[in-house]
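User: I'm writing a tutorial on reading structure tokens. Could you give me a worked example: one chain, its sequence, then its tokens, then a sentence or two explaining what the tokens reveal?
Assistant: Sure. Here is the example chain.
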Amino acid sequence: MNPEAWRCYAAYYRGMQGRVVMSVLLAAGQALLVLPLAFLVRAAFDTLIPARDFGLLLAAGGGILIVSLLNNAVTLWTRHTTLDIVKRAIATLRMELLDQCYALSRHFHTHADRGRLQSLLMHDTERVDIMSNALVTAFLPGACTSLVLALVLMYLYPLLFVIIAAVMPLLIWTNKMSAVRTRVENAKFHNAFADFSRGIFFVLQAMDLTRIQTAEPFERERQHAATENLRVTSGRMVWLNTAHRALQNIISVFWAVIILIAGGWAVSQNWMTLGDLLAYYVAVSLLSASMISTLTAIPQIVEGNASLKLLHEFLQTRDPLPYHGAREILFQGNVRFDEVWFHYDDAEVLRGVNLELKRGVTTAILGSNGAGKSTLTFLLLGLYRPTRGALFAEGIVYDELAMPALRARIGAVLQDPLIFAGSVRENIAYGAVDATGAQIERASRLATAHDFITQLPHGYETQVGEEGKLLSGGQRQRLALARALLREPALLILDEPTNHLDAASIVEWMANLKTLAPRPAVLLISHDLSVAHQADQVFELRDGQVTQMLRIDAQALEQNLYAHK
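And here are its predicted structure tokens:
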């Protein structure tokens, strides 16, 4: 058990501790209802039945019914209260995990195992939810109730209580051994489930790749192995939990048989009446049910504890965002790179880059694949921080700026734009919830997307499929440009726009952009020479350095680009 993880988890119940304590105490207080039940049962068998007083016997039965109804009413109330408490705490935990995802840098997310991360955020939070319910609704009330019932039995029937206490060490020992085994099998199950979840995520994501590579047999074998491992580990864990409950039931029956024999002997010796024995059985049955409820919650708590540890470790991960400034400015598209160096791990990508983007000016940066062109985009967006040097927007260093406010004035179309499952309209308006239909249509026309959209079965309401697979590459890129233009950006970044579009489409795009007032700064990043003719200034990125080209020699440039691929 990780004490720090539990301290942090307890903080999610801040402000609700009183309700938790009240629910547990009220549940424990239910144990006191065993006293009137015991007295009514004893009176019925020792006095009322022998006296044939059926009127009072009927009243005693009514009393037993009323006590039972009251007991169930309290159970329903405490269950409703504890459910509300637990679900609120789990919702807070899940929201904090989501916030943590957004608080971590792009570096973290590019290196993270997304399958395991998805399993962590979904399945481990569910296990903590189950654990919390078991803890608050079963273990704590059961433990308190068992203690109260044990004290009542010890007071009413000390001799028989000694017999019960003699069985306790066996119960505790078997439960401890079961908990140790459960913890081991639970760890194996967690790993197997994470592998299975990651495998299914890959199958769905890489379906086209698998078929193109004719890797179905390999992938089936790999995923079948993961499925078989999950079957074995989950089967062991479920069987172990079942065996744990069966063992508790056997001990309870063993317990009851001992009490029957000892109690029967006590009745035969006139040490207690038959009514006393039956009343004692009622109390012991309640104690047994309470203890079984407590003990059967332990495997769920053990499993949830392992998940809680993993979630706590994720929440303690520190890989912060590159910038934390708060200054908002009137950004008009003017950005300057000042002696910017950057490296990924040990690989140096940029070396002393000096570059200036200006409002209304189209800048092209040409370079071979892998030269670091996309890195410039991520630096501009503030998703990466230079190893050395700095970036300035409107003359203000990035360190001082509120990055979300700056990005709101930048439109970026990446070389592999993300189109998510939803309608065309939802994809264009993503992040701009207040956009009107007229604004969406205007952005689509500027992106040369309106014509193909109107030809779709349902126009702007047409569903595009997972990752936009119902659209062509060019259509996806046009939607991404429409999404960027909807923001009316002061700076527009087009990363490898010719990946899915021909030169004529780029010319049309650029012509449309020149009609905007005010005209944004445009950065064209490409390995394609054709984009150079759309720019006001052209730079070449080679060997980590940016060099301005005063005269575009297409043949010499092409030789340079291919020489450094």
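What the tokens reveal: Confidence is low (pLDDT under 50) at residues 560-565. The chain has 19 helices and ten strands.
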